[in-house]
Amino acid sequence: MAIGRQRAKEHVAGSPNGNITSQSEQGAQAAQSKQTGPDTTMLPTNPRTGEPLAPRAQPGYYPGFSTLRQQAFWDEATRNVVLERVQHTPPIRFFSPEEAQLMESVCARILPQDDRDEAHIIPIVCRIDERLYAGRIDGYRYEDMPPDGEAHRLGLRAIEAIAQHLYGVAFVELGPGEQERVLATIHDGEPPAAEDIWQRMSVSRYWMLLVQDCIEAYYSHPYAWDEIGFGGPAYPRGYVRLENGLPESWEVNERRYEWRAPSWAISGEYQPMGGGDTAATPGQEGTH
Amino acid sequence: MMKKPVLGRMGSGLRTPKPHEHMLGPIQKISQPMRRFDPGEEVDYVIVGVGAAGGVLLQRLARAGFRVVGFDAGPFWDTERDWVSDEAGSYNLYWNDLRVTGGSDPLAFGANNSGKGVGGGTVHWAGFTPRFHPSDFRVYSEDGVGADWPISYEDVKPYYELMEREIPVSGPAYYPWGDPHGYPYGPHPLGGVGDALVKGCTKLGIGVVAGGPVAITAGSHGDRPHCIYRGFCIQGCKVGAKQSTLISHVPDAIRHGAEIRDRCMVSRILLGSDGLVTGVRYFDANGQEHEQRAKVVLVCGYSIETPRLLLNSACSGFEQGLANSSGLVGKFLMAQAGNVVLGRFADLVRMYKAPPAHALTEEFYETDPKRDFARGFAIQTVGPLPIAFAKQMMTAKGAWGWGLRQVMMDYNHWAAFGFLGEILPWEDNRVELADETDQYGLRVAKITFSLHDNDKKLVAFGVNKTMEVMRAAGAEEVVQEPRYAHLIGGARMGNDPRSSVVDSFGRTHDIPNLILCDGSIFPTQGSANPGLTIQALAARTADYLISEGEAVRSRHTQTIIRPPIRYHLSPASTAGRGVPRLRSLRPRPTIGAGGLAPGSKG
Amino acid sequence: MAVKALIPAVEDLSETLLDARLRWKRLAERKARMVESGGLARDIERDVQIVEEYIREGRFQRSLSLIAGISALLGGLEVTYEHYQGSYSQRIMYSPLVASAGVAVAACWGVFDRRVARTALPIASLVLLGDGVTGFIFHIRGVARKPGGWSLPVTNVTMGPPLFAPLLLGTGGFLGLIASLLRREDDPLPSGLPGLWEAATAWFDKPPDEFSAHRRSGSAQAEWSRIRRRIREGRFQRILAGATAVSALLNGMEALYSHYKNNYRYRVQWLPILLSPVIAAAGLGAIWNRTIAETLLPATSLAAAISGLVGLYYHLRGTLRRPGGLKLPVYNIIYGPPAFAPLLYSSTGFLGLLASLLRRGD
Q: Quick one: pLDDT band at residue A24, thresholds 50, 70, 90?
């Protein structure tokens, strides 16, 4: 936790000096190369060679594993729900175009997909937008939080304010490393700006709301299941091999490869949320 | 290339249900039309909330020949059409209406602990069904904390045995903790997480049981198939292997003439001039408001909605909420500490296979004078699916961005244990009404929850112990996520009307024909999952109500202490199944003719 | 010994009235004479010769009773915990326990008591055989009633009720039935007993020509008579070879889908799966070909018997190595590798060996 706090302070302290410029350049470079081809600085690397790993249709250690290919074994209701998710991208109706654009860059850092090829990007923002537009909530609201939609709007404003405070540039204009540093201040529970917004909502609860919404969009997608080797829907066919991590006949065995987050990514290392007071941020998902 | 089933037609290989068939699993169905009472007709019983307790009561009372109507705010599920084998797609199973949560340790609701729809929370519970220990019923006498129950373990024991047959509960032939006993259905095979728990416990010399006790069929049960070990228990069991009252008791209730009005939100309980409740007012699926008159009203809405309905039903004579002369409606709310301990193994685990609930230890259940806190905890298996696991990685490791992607790629290397710790009843942990209203214009619940000293010590010790077990199992990295599971309390039972809301049968001290029956009436919660005890107490209350009959409307003094157990009211599928089992190793206490005298401290 | 078959029926009757102890005594005396006449090696050699001769002539009711009894006992123990996995959720799941216990008791008793071997044993065996067939039908239904039913054969046969296990249990009944028709080791004569069975088998000891008359009549009863006679004379190699083939196939299928659960993690798990078709081929071949019956059948059967013992070792080891090991004995026996399954595989081997020693119908 101490490292996390220190890290946030370093960014804040470091804001006026020169190393930021280089990162801005890096960002501009990234923005530029997006038009011409894959930007190698965005990619995870092979830790042995330092070489960037080319984007692939299916990152992860289960090459050739496809849950969607098993869809004939799913029950009809489940198949409909999952295929709808894969085939249909809802329009943006809750966020304004500006908010949506900002949200896109935020979500691209919360769950980066630069290692995925263009055809296999999992849409995230439109899922969050759909939920907020429909007013779907998880059954409760924290006393110290505004309703979810408002919280997301306030959060985006705060992110923008932090970006301006640290770098004097809009969040969407920043390079990926700087964007991560902006978000890390919220993750660490010490945002250096937008005090008025943090008066109205808890920093750590906003962070959990944001990350959980991204998680729900990403890890509900069959592409993500293939990536992590999860079996996907399992009715009426259940599982035969329960122990020792054995694969079913239609699953594949793990084939690991080494990879490391891009060098600019501070999210590649793990720091506790909110400066380490985990008791203050209990999990919200049902397990038992 | 699309893979196809080897034989049969393209598709799931499931029989396509006919339009009039209400499917409750791949085979079980309700084909006959449900009885409908006339709108103006006064029925014998109205049950608010057809969940764990409501489902059992509905079935018992209908089978005994009473006219019963059950209300549920959610749908009467058709499991083949409505449920999916998908994490995100199971959103509708939960009580997702607004609640406001606060306090220093605010509780999460929705998917975490609240169900909506016929079957209630049993639709998405993991199905762990341990009994409470005898000591749970006298926590105050033994440890000087919490409260005593007005009944003892021996009062509930026959109902435990009965419900374990009706559910049916699968588990070991010998369960060593509390009142040692065996289970009517055999144990389940272990998955990777269960193997880890058994390995870890065995290495540390901690007793552990494998394969149960869980409310999941190990063997077919009438039209309910054997479990297929697909791991989607808490997303609603489409297989019909994991029990919910929807599939175990509701079909029998419908066959015996019960009516269920689904998507009907009861807004208020109506009080007559004679001090008896006369029925309920409710919103139907179209938002129209109606009234249903009844001789007796049973409220089975669980720890948040039951107090909320009583508070929202405040009227002249009960300005602070119906049946709330004690001022305790909504007070002494409890949740169990449900931290998730996660361990990464070098070998693959694939924890999405097998039911999340399938092995546990209650070795630390009881108070240990060597520790600096009262009461104890259990360690159980859990099996988070990808979304839940990713959220756990967010809290437990602080993962996001590339780190989140990277740790998620190791999903199949992780195993998860659920810590389950007893949190004591405190008056300041409570349900009140917020100023905000829901879609019906009803004030929503505001919940305040904070841990106290004993709770914090217990959680700290227990989580450390659980992490130790995970390490002993061979995990290289162990992290934990704080969390709360299950709801209990909010309308506690007792003998003294000044310090409790209901008597031991759930009958409110204030209003003779208003009965509460669900987890809200528990004075304490132990560190056992409450689902079995809720259903057992519901069966006991049903026996009591059937014994009392009409008299329940007039009698204020409790004359029936131990109603006869009506074994013949079990659902049709109960008889002739399962194995002979160990009943008890404890000497049988002598039960006097009258049992406990009224008013005596139990 | 074949000479003895010609001794008149009167003597036969008097023989049957002799006390069992007396017969043992005679046998012992004969053995003693043999010991006198040679060294230990020779003694063993003669014993082997006697056993072979007995088998060839169908005089091994006691031995086969014992094998049937043990096989029913193993099968019964296996089904006890296999059905516990299914929680005895239907009362009929207790029936194989009762039926196999019946054969186990009748067969073991039959080792000492001729009357039981001739009366109770065949009845108990028929019950077990019937129960096996009933179980097979129920297991087919059980797979059909699993989610997805027969559209998901691989999953549902593997995870559902084991399809062929009831038939495998039924082979215990089959052995018992054969045993009940054999002559006893100490039978000096083709003999019958007074009483029920005697009445029913009066035809049994009729001279061949009379029997042939029956045969010419072509009735089903006559056909049955022929079979029984052959069995009694040890001329049923084909039947037993066929039974070996069926038993090997069933065992192989069981091994295939129970080892499939484990993804064939250990290469040795393929052993019973690969061996079974070979034994089955040998068994089937032995029906048509004497040479196969005398060469390939005993060789593969011996391999099966040994591989069953190897399996027993690995299964016991696997049970001990499970998480919790002996601290969760009941659980690990239920869900560990089944200890008795490899022994059933061995018993198939013995069946094949037995078959190879018999005479053929012609």
A: very low
> Strand B289-299 and strand B514-516: pairing?
parallel
Q: Which residues of B touch C335 (CB under 8 A)?
A: 187, 189-190, 211
**Quick check: helix, strand or coil at residue B131?**
coil
User: Would you kindly state where each structural domain of chain C is located, as residue ranges?
Assistant: 59-182, 193-233, 236-362
Using CA coordinates, name the residue in chain A closest to B11. Answer: A72
- The answer to whether residue C158 neighbours chain A at the CB level (below 8 Å) is yes
The answer, for B484 touching chain A at a CB cutoff of 8 Å, is yes
Q: Is the pLDDT confidence value at C206 over 90? A: no
Q: Which residues make Cβ contacts (< 8 Å) with residue A152, sequence separation at least 6?
A: A95, A103, A128, A132, A209, A210, A213
**Residues in A touching C158 (Cβ below 8 Å):** 240
Number of domains in chain A: 1
Look up the CATH architecture of domain B41-569: 3-Layer(bba) Sandwich (3.50)
Question: Phi and psi for B344 in degrees, rounded to 5?
Answer: -100, 130
| A35 domain residue, yes or no | no
Say yes or no for a CB contact (<8 Å) between A279 and B26: no
What six digits make up the tokens of A260?
């490391």
Is residue A96 over pLDDT 90? yes
Q: Is the pLDDT of residue A102 over 60?
A: yes
- The pLDDT of residue C26: 66
How many other C-beta atoms can be found within 10 angstroms of the C-beta atom of residue B471? Answer: 17
User: Which residues, given as ranges, of chain B have pLDDT below 70?
Assistant: 1-13, 555-558, 585-602
- Are B106 and A235 a contacting pair at CB < 8 A? no
Within 8 A of B229 by CB-CB distance, chain A residues are: 238-239, 242
Judging by beta carbons within 10 Å of its beta carbon (0-12, 13-18, 19+), is residue B329 exposed, middle or buried?
buried
> Looking at residues C84-103, what average pLDDT do you find?
93
Q: What is the dihedral of CA A34, A35, A40, A44, to 10 degrees?
A: 30
Token pair for C332: 């690990």
Q: What share of chain C is helix, strand, coil (3-state, %, to 5)?
A: 80, 0, 20
Burial B201-238 (b: 16+ CB within 10 A, else e): bbbbebebbbbbbbbbbbbbbbbbbbbbbbbbbbbbbb
The SS3 assignment for C123 reads: helix
